[in-house]
Each structure stands twice: as structure tokens, then as C-alpha cells.
Design brief:
Blueprint: H1 11-40, H2 43-70, H3 76-84, H4 93-105, H5 114-119, E1 129-131, E2 134-136, H6 151-156, H7 169-179, H8 181-209
Antiparallel strand pairs: 1-2
Helix pairs in contact: 1-2, 2-8
Length: about 230
């Protein structure tokens, strides 16, 4: 909802999504050559399957390297853009989504509460100071103080003691992503290994695993005949 309300985007990750879709759709058609090539014992189809799988492997590897090189931090830009358009007097998707996220996740701002002061003119104050995990003289929306007893005080002095959420919302999401990086990396490696095995198998069948016309053993299509 946040990104739909703005022109914000992350080009490198949009490209990654398009790349994944292309690879997924292509895999359906490529599997046709592998299955039919093995069933018909067609070296031409198996050779085509080998080339296409190799191309997919290159695309996946390049996409993974580009995605890892960019890092998760690039995703924070569009959220900062929507934060700057937040207006408590309205009830659009931006306000509703931000209020729900900050209340449910018990967080405030993108990276920290000071984002409201830095990126939204409606919450700019005269000064800002950090006292441990507390944030002084920084105006924040009411949803940053959902757990506060005195929300009016919390909104102009968002400290942990006043009941404000002092953890950034994107920081929480980023920590969860980084926590599962090992699992994602393992799955990616497994997919690449399977594709490499397919390459070796198709190459073997294409070059030396199928009979030639000069060999005495009957072709597969004649196996059922007496």
C-alpha cells in the first residue's frame, strides 16, 4: 500500500523480480525439451535443453550476485519517501499503513524516531538529543506512542520512559531478513547444485548416453515389439 501511493521504487529489486518471473516461466518451457528429449532419445532436444539450462544458471547467478551486492538497506528509500508524505489529518493508505505498522510492530520511523523530524515537515522540531535509548524534543505520530499512558507528552518527547517506541520499523525488518540469510543462501545453493546436475546429465545423454544408428541395440520405440 505504501509504494502504491507514491512513485517510489527500488529499480534493482524491481529488475530482480522481473528476472525471477522470466526464469520461472522459462523453466516450464525448458522442462519440455528435457522430458521429451529423454523420452524420444533426441540428441537435438537434449542439446537444446543443456544450452537453455546453462543460460538460466548464468541468469540466476548474475541476479544473485547483483542482489547481494546492493544489500537490504536499499529498500529503506521508498519507505522514507512515504514517511515524508504522512499527514495525520488525512486517512489515506499511507497514514493507515504507517499507523498499523508502528502499532503492531511497536516501532517508530524507518530507521529510528528522528526520521519523522528529518523527513516530514509536519514533525520538525527545534532540537533533537539522544539520551541512551531515549529521544528528546522530537515530534512523532500518535501511533509511535500507542503504549504510552500520556500520549500527548510522548508525542513531543518520545522517550522510552514516556512509553514511546524507540526502535525503527525498517531496522526490525532488516534484522529479521539478516537472521534468515543463512537459510536463503542454503536454498539458493541447493537450486544451483540441482541445475548443475541437470547440466551434467543432459550433456551425458546428449554426447554418449544415447545409442547411434550403427549400434545393434534397438531404439526405445521398438522395445515393446516381439
Amino acid at each position: 500500500d505504501l509504494l502504491d501511493e507514491t512513485n517510489a521504487s527500488v529499480p534493482i529489486y524491481n529488475s530482480a523480480v522481473i528476472l525471477i518471473l522470466i526464469v520461472s516461466i522459462s523453466s516450464i518451457f525448458i522442462s519440455f525439451f528435457g522430458c521429451c528429449g529423454a523420452y524420444k532419445e533426441s540428441k537435438c532436444m537434449l542439446g537444446t535443453y543443456f544450452v537453455l539450462i546453462l543460460a538460466l544458471l548464468v541468469l540466476i547467478t548474475v541476479g544473485a550476485i547483483i542482489g547481494m551486492a546492493q544489500g537490504v538497506g536499499k529498500l529503506s528509500s521508498p519507505f522514507l519517501d512515504t514517511l515524508s508524505k504522512y499527514d495525520p489529518s488525512r486517512s489515506t493508505a499511507i497514514e493507515t499503513t504507517w499507523d498499523q505498522i508502528q502499532t503492531d510492530m511497536e516501532c517508530c520511523g524507518v530507521n529510528w524516531p528522528k526520521d519523522w523530524m528529518d523527513y516530514n515537515t509536519l514533525y520538525q522540531g527545534d532540537s533533537f538529543a539522544v539520551a541512551g535509548d531515549s529521544y528528546l524534543m522530537a515530534k512523532v505520530p500518535q501511533s509511535c506512542c500507542a503504549a504510552a499512558v500520556d500520549q500527548d507528552l510522548c508525542m513531543v518527547t518520545p522517550t522510552a520512559a514516556n512509553g514511546a517506541f524507540v526502535q525503527g520499523c525498517f531496522a526490525l525488518v532488516q534484522s529479521q531478513i539478516e537472521h534468515h540469510v543463512t537459510v536463503l543462501g542454503g536454498v539458493s545453493i541447493a537450486v544451483i547444485v540441482i541445475m548443475v546436475l541437470n547440466l551434467f546429465l543432459s550433456f551425458y545423454l546428449c554426447t554418449c548416453g544415447l545409442d547411434t544408428d550403427q549400434e545393434a541395440r534397438p531404439k526405445k520405440k521398438f522395445y515393446g515389439r516381439p
